[in-house]
Amino acid sequence: MADEAGPDRRRPVPAGPRRGLVGADGHRSSVTSRVLGILAAFDSRHPTLSLSDIARRAGLPLATAHRLVGELAGWGALHRGPRGEYAIGVRLWELGLLSPLHHRLRETALPYLPELAAATGENAHLAVRDGSQALYVEKFTGARAVPILSRVGGRLPLHATGVGKALLAFQDPGFVGDYLREPLIRCTPYTIVEPGRLAGDLTAVRRRGWASTREEMTLGSCSVAVPVLAGSADGAGGGPVAVAAIGIVVHSRRTSLRPLLPAVRAAADQIAARLARRPVDRADFHWVEGPASAGRGDAAGSDRAERHRQRSRE
């Protein structure tokens, strides 16, 4: 989002290539970990790499990288360009489409995101929690949208983004407590980095059912977001958990975000309702990691989520 447009300066994901050549037990890594290191060498800032770059970023000998990259290219996991550079191949894209994050959540949400962008004229986002970050799954741009840098597949801090706060507020209390104990990076002068103050903000988000930011990720923009709620955080009786969040970004000149809330809330509720109508189990929401994961397998959980949505409108 526009206030979710800067780099993730809270917990940057380490370059995958440098992971795991030597295991925790001091032994050499497996072939699998070396292959995964090669694939993780590619990111948004390095979409194409030479063989020597791959070897360097993966921490592999050039001969080893040459052999493994050749096998990956032969299978279609990597694509070799006309100048010898490599990029992620079509076969990996095809496999990615099989993820529930794509064929379940994204496809469920697709009818509503462009409508939200058209109705508000702003940028509309769909995001999920992936560990301690907000992962952007889809984005649509409205006619009056402010320029943004966020992209599908990008990750940004939970505490500095609208969708991130909507996700964080509706997670297992243990996860939220752990998050608040970690150092919170200040992305702008307005980012909330004091644990007590952020905890209060999250309490307000849970009470009212929506989150907002004002220049907390990027100066000049603000956002409003609503969680897509399902089941319970513990699967057995807790409050509803956010399996995703819908948000829009506007220019900070707007004096109030409340007029945008009905459209955002309607989109989030429609997505939640569609998810609830399809037979699922907890595994379908595996992208919500750890104790905060939840599905819509029990009717009681769905009822709790609906009661919370009703209260948030009051």
| Domain count | 2
CATH level 1 name of the largest domain: Alpha Beta
Work out the strand percent.
15-25%
Count up the helices: 11
* Silhouette: globular
By DSSP, the count of extended strands is: 9
Element order: H for helix, E for strand: HEHHEEHHHEEEHHHEEEHH
SS-based structural class?
alpha+beta
Please give the alpha-carbon distance between the first and last residues: 27 Å
Helix content: 25-40%
The name CATH uses for the topology of the largest domain is Beta-Lactamase
Lay out the secondary structure.
Layout lengths: L30 H10 L7 E2 L1 H8 L3 H14 L2 E3 L5 E3 L1 H7 L3 H10 L3 H8 L2 E8 L2 E8 L14 E3 L4 H8 L3 H9 L13 H14 L2 E4 L6 E10 L10 E11 L9 H17 L21 H15 L1
Helix pairs in contact: 1-2, 2-3, 5-10, 7-9
Describe this structure in words.
The protein is of the alpha+beta class and 314 residues long. It has 2 domains: 16-95, Winged helix-like DNA-binding domain superfamily/Winged helix DNA-binding domain (Arc Repressor Mutant, subunit A); 100-313, 2-Layer Sandwich (Beta-Lactamase). The chain contains 11 helices and 9 strands. It has helices spanning 31-40, 51-58, 62-75, 90-96, 100-109, 113-120, 162-169, 173-181, 195-208, 261-277, 299-313; strands at residues 48-49, 78-80, 86-88, 123-130, 133-140, 155-157, 211-214, 221-230, 241-251. Helix 1 packs across helix 2 and helix 7 (162-169) packs across helix 9. It starts with 30 loop residues before the first helix and ends with a helix.
